[in-house]
Amino acid sequence: MPVITCIDDLKRLARRRVPRMFWDYAESGSWTEQTFRDNTADFARLRLRQRVAVDMTGRSTESTMIGQQVAMPVALAPVGLAGMQHADGEILAARAAQAFGVPFCLSTMSIASIEDVAAHTRKPFWFQLYTMKDQGFLGDLIARARSAGCSALVITVDLQILGQRHKDLKNGLSAPPRLTPAVIADLATKWRWGSAMLGTRRRQFGNIVGHVSGVSDPSSLMSWTAEQFDPSLDWDKIAHLAELWGGPVIIKGILDAEDARRAAEIGATAIVVSNHGGRQLDGALSSIRMLPAILDAVGDRTEVHLDSGIRSGQDVLKALALGARGTWIGRAWVYGLGAMGQAGVTRALEVIAKELDTSMALCGVRRVGDLSRDVLLVPRDFTGDWG
Predict the structure, then answer these.
(1) Contacting residues for 218 by C-beta, under 8 A, at least 6 apart
(2) By CB neighbour count within 10 A (0-12 exposed, 13-18 middle, 19+ buried), where does 122 fall?
C-alpha cells in the first residue's frame, strides 16, 4: 500500500487505475483550459503569515455550513459519473463523508440514483439539480429528492449551455463506455476497475434511466442529456424552483457580483462561488480571485462558499481567511475515489483536515471560525484592475 501524504499522491494513483475516458472527464477543462489551470495557480499566489508564541492547545476545525454542524467546512461537491471512477462511487463517497462528518452532494448525473444512495447511508445528503427542459422530469426529480430526505437542494446555474471539453469528444465519453478497440485496450490495463465494475449493477445514470422514455442505450442517454440542459433558465425560474423545493437552497455557479446579489435577493440559503472547475467558460477568472468582490456584494445576506481549485487544506484555509463560510472539493475526492474507493475518499478528507489544522496552528489560529484576512499575504494585484 503506497504512503499517501497529499492529494497529489491520490491523483497519481487514480490516474493509473481509472480508465482514460473517465480520468479525462474529471481531469479536464473547457477549450484551452486556461481557467482550469488558473483555479489552482491563483491559490498559490496567496501566502500565509507565520505567527509564533500562541497557545495552540484545544484547536478545532469544526464549523457549520447552512446551519449543519460539520467536522470542517468542506463539502464533497457534486461530480457527474462518479460511479464510473470506481464502482458504486457515489455510495462510497457519501459513506466516507458521513463517517467523517462533512456534507455530501449528489449530482443529477450520478450513476447511483438518489434512492440508492439514500438506502445505503444513514444521514441526509444534499442533492444537486441540473435544470432540464423536460418539466415533468424536473418536477419528479425534485419530488424524489424530497422523498429521499435530502436536506438541501443545490441548483447549478452555470450549465445552461454545455462548455466544450475536447477530451470528452475525442474519447467518445459514455456511461457505460462503448467498447471500441481503443477502449478495450485501455480497460485491459485497468483490471482493478474492471473487476469492481463487474461486481455492480450500477453502470448507467441512475437518476435518468427508468425515469425518461426513449432512452435505451448509452448513446441515446448521452444525447438526451446533452440536449436537455435548459438555455432559458433565468432568475424567475430559479426562484420558482426554490419555492417548489421549500427548503434550504444553495445556488452553485456564481462568478459575478451582480449575479451574487440576485441570488441573495431570491433568498438563497447559500451561494457557491464557482466556475464549474474550469469546465464551462474558459477565460473566466478563477473562483478564488472573484471571491472578495462577491463577498463585498452580498455582505451577510447569504452564506458564501467557494468551489473550484481546492487541492489542499491550505487552499481551504485561504478561502476561509478571505471570508468564505465553507468550501467544496470535487477533484480532490474524486482522486481518492479512483485511487482507493471509499478508503481513498476518507484519506483525501484526512489529508485536507490535517493540512488545515497544522497550517491554522502555524498561523496562530486555534479555531477555524477565527480565520481572517489577517493570516494572509495577498498580492496587491490579486483581484486585478480589469477594464
Answers:
(1) 174, 175, 176, 177, 178, 204
(2) exposed
Between CA 366 and CA 60 the distance in angstroms is 6
Q: What is the pLDDT of residue 178?
A: 84
DSSP symbols for 236-293: HHHHHHHHHH-S-EEEEEE-SHHHHHHHHHTT-SEEEE--GGGTSSTTPPPHHHHHHH
Q: Tell me which residues are annotated as active site.
A: 276
Query: Residue 160 class from Cβ within 10 Å (0-12 exposed, 13-18 middle, 19+ buried)?
Result: middle
Residue 179 has pLDDT above 90, yes or no: no
- Average pLDDT (84-110) is 98
Phi, psi of 100 (to 5 degrees): -80, -25
Closest CA to 250 of 125, 120, 96, 119: 125
8 A C-beta contact, residue 331 and residue 277:
yes
**Residue 239 pLDDT > 90, yes or no?**
yes
- Smallest Cα–Cα separation from 274: which of 258, 286, 260, 282? 286
Please name the helix (run of DSSP H) or strand (run of DSSP E) that holds residue 362, with its range, or none: helix 342-362
What average pLDDT does the chain have?
95
Contact 15, 23 (CB under 8 A): yes
Q: Which domains does the chain have, with CATH numbers?
A: 7-377 (3.20.20.70)
Amino acid 228: pLDDT: 86
**What single DSSP character describes residue 146?**
H
pLDDT, tens digit, 9 for 90 and up, residues 112-160: 999 999 999 999 999 999 999 989 999 999 999 999 999 999 999 999 8
- Which residues, 6+ apart, have CB-to-CB distance to 318 below 8 Å? 43, 46, 48, 288, 376
Q: What is the amino acid identity at position 212?
A: V
Write down the residue that cell numbers 449493477 correspond to. Answer: 201
Based on its alpha-carbon atoms, the radius of gyration of the chain, rounded to whole angstroms, reads: 20
Question: Residue 377: in which H helix or E strand, if any?
Answer: strand 376-377
